[in-house]
Amino acid sequence: MYLALKYLHALTVVISISLFLWRGVLVFSQRSPARWLKIAPHANDTLLLTAAIAMLIVAGINPLDHPWLSGKILLLLAYIGLGSVALKRANLTAFIAALACFGWIVFMAVSKQVWPI
Ligand code: HEM
What we know:
Layout: H1 2-28, H2 35-59, H3 67-89, H4 92-111
The chain binds protoporphyrin IX containing FE.
Protoporphyrin IX containing FE binds near residues 13, 56 and 109.
């Protein structure tokens, strides 16, 4: 069960960053995204978070006991906020900062630590 949820989580992670990059390309080239491209990321991100929460429940993990998990939650909020500013206002700095947050989240997920050193 845990492994299935982890695969679902990882799959939705790949879809999430792909859709974010695609929407970024459209926004910065001043093309309007198709309607489905405005809805699909929310559905996918809901699934991403649901799989994460389900993993915590199945494994009986309290995210506050593990800095890398608490860090993921904080950075997820930053990624959502920065991503929304980036796409609504075509703000490249916010877009790059959102990508950095995403990269850091993946680093924490893989290494189970908050900082690279
Ligand atoms: C944009 C947000 C997120 C991204 C990009 C992300 C990315 C990832 C990736 C790539 C993995 C697989 C790591 C591996 O196989 O070694 C993973 C695993 C995991 N993530 Fe996330 N994650 C995100 C949000 C969250 C949140 C909010 C939580 C809950 C606090 C969470 C909890 C977990 C857990 C429990 C695992 C399994 C760890 C393991 O068993 O190795 N993730 N995440």
